[in-house]
Automatic annotation (TrEMBL):
Residues 18-287 form the Histone deacetylase domain. One of its GO terms (biological process) is epigenetic regulation of gene expression. Pfam families: Hist_deacetyl. This is Histone deacetylase. Belongs to the histone deacetylase family. The keyword Hydrolase applies. The keyword Hydrolase applies. Keywords: Hydrolase. Gene3D superfamilies: Histone deacetylase domain. SUPFAM superfamilies: Arginase/deacetylase (SSF52768). It comes from the Bacteria. GO terms for molecular function: histone deacetylase activity; hydrolase activity. It comes from Mongoliitalea lutea.
Length: 300
Protein backbone atom coordinates (compact mmCIF):
# COMPACT_ATOMS: atom_id res chain seq x y z
CA UNK A 1 0.00 0.00 0.00
CA UNK A 2 1.23 3.50 -0.81
CA UNK A 3 1.59 5.36 2.49
CA UNK A 4 1.52 9.15 2.50
CA UNK A 5 2.38 11.50 5.36
CA UNK A 6 -0.17 14.27 5.72
CA UNK A 7 -1.35 16.50 8.55
CA UNK A 8 -3.69 19.46 8.83
CA UNK A 9 -0.69 21.27 10.29
CA UNK A 10 0.85 21.26 6.81
CA UNK A 11 -1.93 23.53 5.57
CA UNK A 12 -2.60 26.04 8.33
CA UNK A 13 -2.29 29.69 7.24
CA UNK A 14 0.59 31.55 8.80
CA UNK A 15 -0.18 34.20 11.43
CA UNK A 16 -0.10 37.17 9.06
CA UNK A 17 -2.27 35.48 6.46
CA UNK A 18 0.74 34.51 4.36
CA UNK A 19 -0.34 31.38 2.45
CA UNK A 20 2.37 30.99 -0.17
CA UNK A 21 3.35 28.23 -0.74
CA UNK A 22 0.87 26.49 1.61
CA UNK A 23 -2.17 26.13 -0.64
CA UNK A 24 -0.97 23.06 -2.48
CA UNK A 25 -0.82 21.02 0.73
CA UNK A 26 -4.59 21.22 0.97
CA UNK A 27 -5.39 20.81 -2.72
CA UNK A 28 -3.06 17.91 -3.56
CA UNK A 29 -4.60 15.31 -1.21
CA UNK A 30 -8.07 16.52 -2.22
CA UNK A 31 -7.24 15.94 -5.88
CA UNK A 32 -5.75 12.50 -5.26
CA UNK A 33 -8.82 11.43 -3.30
CA UNK A 34 -11.25 12.94 -5.82
CA UNK A 35 -9.75 11.12 -8.79
CA UNK A 36 -9.40 7.83 -6.90
CA UNK A 37 -5.63 7.60 -7.06
CA UNK A 38 -5.63 7.06 -3.30
CA UNK A 39 -8.13 6.52 -0.51
CA UNK A 40 -8.17 7.76 3.06
CA UNK A 41 -6.40 4.55 4.11
CA UNK A 42 -3.27 5.65 2.25
CA UNK A 43 -2.71 8.65 4.53
CA UNK A 44 -1.12 8.69 7.95
CA UNK A 45 -0.70 11.58 10.37
CA UNK A 46 2.94 12.05 11.42
CA UNK A 47 3.69 11.88 15.11
CA UNK A 48 5.63 14.56 16.95
CA UNK A 49 9.35 13.99 16.40
CA UNK A 50 11.63 13.31 19.37
CA UNK A 51 14.13 16.11 19.88
CA UNK A 52 17.07 13.69 19.97
CA UNK A 53 16.68 13.00 16.24
CA UNK A 54 16.70 16.68 15.41
CA UNK A 55 19.80 17.25 17.56
CA UNK A 56 21.60 14.43 15.73
CA UNK A 57 21.41 16.50 12.52
CA UNK A 58 21.17 20.15 13.58
CA UNK A 59 23.18 22.33 15.92
CA UNK A 60 21.56 22.20 19.36
CA UNK A 61 21.97 25.92 19.99
CA UNK A 62 20.20 26.75 16.74
CA UNK A 63 17.40 24.26 17.39
CA UNK A 64 16.80 25.53 20.91
CA UNK A 65 16.72 29.14 19.71
CA UNK A 66 14.31 28.16 16.92
CA UNK A 67 11.99 26.31 19.30
CA UNK A 68 12.07 29.19 21.79
CA UNK A 69 11.27 31.66 18.97
CA UNK A 70 14.54 33.49 19.60
CA UNK A 71 15.86 33.84 16.03
CA UNK A 72 16.99 37.31 15.01
CA UNK A 73 15.05 39.37 12.48
CA UNK A 74 17.77 38.70 9.92
CA UNK A 75 17.59 34.94 10.50
CA UNK A 76 13.80 34.99 10.23
CA UNK A 77 13.91 37.04 7.03
CA UNK A 78 16.20 34.48 5.38
CA UNK A 79 13.67 31.70 6.01
CA UNK A 80 10.92 33.57 4.15
CA UNK A 81 8.36 32.84 6.87
CA UNK A 82 7.22 34.84 9.92
CA UNK A 83 8.36 32.81 12.92
CA UNK A 84 5.63 31.42 15.16
CA UNK A 85 4.90 28.46 17.42
CA UNK A 86 2.52 27.13 14.78
CA UNK A 87 5.25 27.23 12.14
CA UNK A 88 7.71 25.37 14.37
CA UNK A 89 5.11 22.70 15.21
CA UNK A 90 4.39 22.32 11.50
CA UNK A 91 8.08 21.84 10.78
CA UNK A 92 8.49 19.15 13.43
CA UNK A 93 5.59 17.14 11.97
CA UNK A 94 7.01 17.49 8.47
CA UNK A 95 10.35 16.12 9.71
CA UNK A 96 8.75 13.05 11.22
CA UNK A 97 6.47 12.68 8.21
CA UNK A 98 9.55 12.00 6.11
CA UNK A 99 11.12 9.71 8.70
CA UNK A 100 7.93 7.67 9.11
CA UNK A 101 7.42 7.58 5.34
CA UNK A 102 10.95 6.20 4.98
CA UNK A 103 10.10 3.40 7.41
CA UNK A 104 6.97 2.64 5.36
CA UNK A 105 9.09 2.63 2.21
CA UNK A 106 11.18 -0.16 3.73
CA UNK A 107 7.98 -2.19 3.99
CA UNK A 108 6.19 -1.27 0.75
CA UNK A 109 9.01 -0.13 -1.53
CA UNK A 110 7.85 3.48 -1.81
CA UNK A 111 6.22 6.09 0.42
CA UNK A 112 5.53 9.82 0.23
CA UNK A 113 5.42 12.97 2.29
CA UNK A 114 2.92 15.55 0.98
CA UNK A 115 5.33 18.16 2.38
CA UNK A 116 9.05 17.92 3.06
CA UNK A 117 12.02 18.40 0.80
CA UNK A 118 13.34 21.19 3.04
CA UNK A 119 16.79 21.10 1.47
CA UNK A 120 17.81 24.72 2.21
CA UNK A 121 18.05 24.19 5.98
CA UNK A 122 21.67 24.03 7.16
CA UNK A 123 23.16 22.57 10.31
CA UNK A 124 22.81 25.88 12.14
CA UNK A 125 20.36 28.03 10.18
CA UNK A 126 17.27 28.07 8.00
CA UNK A 127 16.86 29.53 4.52
CA UNK A 128 14.39 29.54 1.63
CA UNK A 129 11.18 28.32 3.35
CA UNK A 130 13.19 25.67 5.26
CA UNK A 131 13.83 25.67 9.02
CA UNK A 132 14.95 22.06 9.53
CA UNK A 133 16.19 19.57 6.94
CA UNK A 134 13.93 16.52 6.66
CA UNK A 135 16.16 14.92 4.02
CA UNK A 136 19.25 14.91 6.23
CA UNK A 137 17.28 13.98 9.35
CA UNK A 138 15.72 11.02 7.53
CA UNK A 139 19.04 9.83 6.09
CA UNK A 140 20.68 10.01 9.52
CA UNK A 141 17.76 8.18 11.12
CA UNK A 142 17.95 5.35 8.58
CA UNK A 143 21.68 4.94 9.09
CA UNK A 144 21.49 5.21 12.88
CA UNK A 145 18.71 2.64 13.12
CA UNK A 146 20.52 0.33 10.68
CA UNK A 147 17.60 0.51 8.25
CA UNK A 148 20.04 1.47 5.51
CA UNK A 149 23.78 1.38 4.91
CA UNK A 150 24.08 3.79 1.96
CA UNK A 151 21.53 6.53 1.26
CA UNK A 152 21.38 8.28 -2.10
CA UNK A 153 19.71 11.69 -2.09
CA UNK A 154 18.31 12.50 -5.54
CA UNK A 155 17.44 16.19 -5.47
CA UNK A 156 15.75 17.33 -8.69
CA UNK A 157 14.20 20.53 -7.39
CA UNK A 158 15.18 23.52 -9.54
CA UNK A 159 17.17 24.92 -6.60
CA UNK A 160 20.36 23.28 -5.38
CA UNK A 161 20.01 21.30 -2.16
CA UNK A 162 22.59 23.50 -0.49
CA UNK A 163 21.62 22.75 3.11
CA UNK A 164 21.58 19.00 2.50
CA UNK A 165 25.00 19.20 0.85
CA UNK A 166 26.46 21.07 3.83
CA UNK A 167 24.97 18.77 6.46
CA UNK A 168 25.93 15.53 4.70
CA UNK A 169 29.32 16.63 3.34
CA UNK A 170 31.41 14.48 5.68
CA UNK A 171 29.24 11.38 5.76
CA UNK A 172 30.50 8.78 3.25
CA UNK A 173 27.28 6.77 3.66
CA UNK A 174 25.14 9.58 2.23
CA UNK A 175 25.61 10.61 -1.41
CA UNK A 176 24.03 13.93 -2.40
CA UNK A 177 23.10 14.35 -6.07
CA UNK A 178 21.60 17.70 -7.03
CA UNK A 179 20.51 18.63 -10.56
CA UNK A 180 19.40 22.26 -10.55
CA UNK A 181 19.32 25.59 -12.34
CA UNK A 182 22.89 26.86 -12.54
CA UNK A 183 21.89 30.52 -12.39
CA UNK A 184 19.10 30.16 -9.86
CA UNK A 185 18.86 30.47 -6.07
CA UNK A 186 21.02 29.91 -4.11
CA UNK A 187 23.55 32.09 -5.88
CA UNK A 188 26.31 30.64 -3.69
CA UNK A 189 26.19 26.89 -4.19
CA UNK A 190 27.49 24.36 -1.70
CA UNK A 191 29.39 21.30 -2.92
CA UNK A 192 27.17 18.23 -3.29
CA UNK A 193 28.79 14.89 -4.04
CA UNK A 194 27.50 15.42 -7.57
CA UNK A 195 26.15 18.72 -8.87
CA UNK A 196 24.69 19.17 -12.34
CA UNK A 197 24.04 22.83 -13.13
CA UNK A 198 21.40 23.38 -15.81
CA UNK A 199 21.05 26.28 -18.26
CA UNK A 200 17.91 28.42 -18.30
CA UNK A 201 15.13 27.19 -20.61
CA UNK A 202 16.50 23.65 -20.92
CA UNK A 203 13.96 21.46 -22.74
CA UNK A 204 12.61 18.01 -21.91
CA UNK A 205 14.91 16.01 -24.16
CA UNK A 206 18.11 17.70 -22.97
CA UNK A 207 17.10 17.52 -19.32
CA UNK A 208 16.11 13.86 -19.40
CA UNK A 209 19.27 12.93 -21.30
CA UNK A 210 21.42 14.57 -18.61
CA UNK A 211 19.44 12.85 -15.87
CA UNK A 212 19.85 9.40 -17.42
CA UNK A 213 23.55 9.96 -18.13
CA UNK A 214 24.26 10.86 -14.51
CA UNK A 215 21.67 9.04 -12.41
CA UNK A 216 22.00 5.53 -13.88
CA UNK A 217 25.82 5.31 -13.54
CA UNK A 218 25.54 6.77 -10.04
CA UNK A 219 23.16 4.01 -8.99
CA UNK A 220 25.66 1.41 -10.20
CA UNK A 221 28.71 3.12 -8.70
CA UNK A 222 27.40 4.10 -5.26
CA UNK A 223 25.11 1.05 -4.87
CA UNK A 224 22.64 2.65 -2.45
CA UNK A 225 20.17 0.61 -0.44
CA UNK A 226 17.82 3.56 0.11
CA UNK A 227 16.79 6.56 -2.02
CA UNK A 228 15.43 9.90 -0.85
CA UNK A 229 13.87 11.74 -3.79
CA UNK A 230 13.28 15.49 -3.60
CA UNK A 231 10.80 15.91 -6.44
CA UNK A 232 10.16 19.65 -6.65
CA UNK A 233 8.02 20.66 -9.61
CA UNK A 234 9.58 24.11 -9.97
CA UNK A 235 11.37 22.67 -13.02
CA UNK A 236 8.21 23.40 -15.05
CA UNK A 237 8.38 26.04 -17.76
CA UNK A 238 5.34 27.67 -16.11
CA UNK A 239 7.11 28.12 -12.78
CA UNK A 240 7.54 31.73 -11.65
CA UNK A 241 10.89 31.06 -9.98
CA UNK A 242 12.33 28.11 -11.89
CA UNK A 243 13.51 29.45 -15.27
CA UNK A 244 13.80 25.94 -16.77
CA UNK A 245 11.71 24.71 -19.69
CA UNK A 246 10.18 21.36 -18.76
CA UNK A 247 6.69 20.45 -19.87
CA UNK A 248 4.22 18.62 -17.67
CA UNK A 249 5.09 15.39 -19.50
CA UNK A 250 8.80 16.06 -19.11
CA UNK A 251 8.40 16.45 -15.36
CA UNK A 252 6.43 13.21 -15.21
CA UNK A 253 9.08 11.42 -17.28
CA UNK A 254 11.70 12.67 -14.80
CA UNK A 255 9.77 11.11 -11.91
CA UNK A 256 9.30 7.87 -13.83
CA UNK A 257 13.05 7.54 -14.38
CA UNK A 258 13.72 7.70 -10.63
CA UNK A 259 10.82 5.51 -9.49
CA UNK A 260 11.36 2.82 -12.12
CA UNK A 261 15.07 2.62 -11.33
CA UNK A 262 14.33 2.26 -7.62
CA UNK A 263 11.70 -0.39 -8.33
CA UNK A 264 13.91 -2.38 -10.71
CA UNK A 265 16.85 -2.31 -8.28
CA UNK A 266 14.55 -3.17 -5.34
CA UNK A 267 15.72 -0.06 -3.48
CA UNK A 268 13.15 1.61 -1.17
CA UNK A 269 12.44 5.24 -2.01
CA UNK A 270 10.91 8.02 0.08
CA UNK A 271 9.62 10.94 -1.97
CA UNK A 272 9.25 14.44 -0.53
CA UNK A 273 7.57 17.13 -2.59
CA UNK A 274 9.81 20.20 -2.59
CA UNK A 275 8.99 23.39 -4.49
CA UNK A 276 6.42 24.45 -7.06
CA UNK A 277 5.48 28.05 -7.83
CA UNK A 278 3.58 28.15 -11.13
CA UNK A 279 1.12 31.01 -11.56
CA UNK A 280 -1.76 28.53 -11.90
CA UNK A 281 -2.09 26.32 -8.85
CA UNK A 282 -3.60 23.63 -11.11
CA UNK A 283 -0.20 23.19 -12.80
CA UNK A 284 1.47 22.62 -9.43
CA UNK A 285 -1.14 20.10 -8.29
CA UNK A 286 -1.12 18.19 -11.58
CA UNK A 287 2.67 17.89 -11.61
CA UNK A 288 2.82 16.72 -7.99
CA UNK A 289 -0.12 14.34 -8.49
CA UNK A 290 1.75 12.61 -11.30
CA UNK A 291 4.25 11.29 -8.77
CA UNK A 292 1.51 9.55 -6.80
CA UNK A 293 -0.10 8.19 -9.96
CA UNK A 294 3.26 6.79 -11.07
CA UNK A 295 3.90 5.20 -7.69
CA UNK A 296 0.57 3.40 -7.84
CA UNK A 297 1.21 2.33 -11.43
CA UNK A 298 4.74 1.06 -10.90
CA UNK A 299 4.53 -0.45 -7.41
CA UNK A 300 0.94 -1.46 -6.80
Amino acid sequence: MLKIAYSDLYCHPLPDGHRFPMEKYTLLPEQLLYEGTVSSENFFIPEHMAMDWIYKTHDKTYVDRLFNLELTKSEIRKTGFPLSRQLVDREIHIMNGSVQAAVYAKKFGVAMNIAGGTHHAFTNRGEGFCLLNDIAITANYLLDQQLANKVLVVDLDVHQGNGTAEICANNPNIFTFSMHGAGNYPMHKEQSDLDIGLPDKIDDASYLKLLRENFYPLMDKFEPDFLIFQSGVDVLATDKLGRLGLSMQGCKDRDRIVLEAAYQHKIPVMCCMGGGYSEKISHIIEAHANMYRLAQEIYF
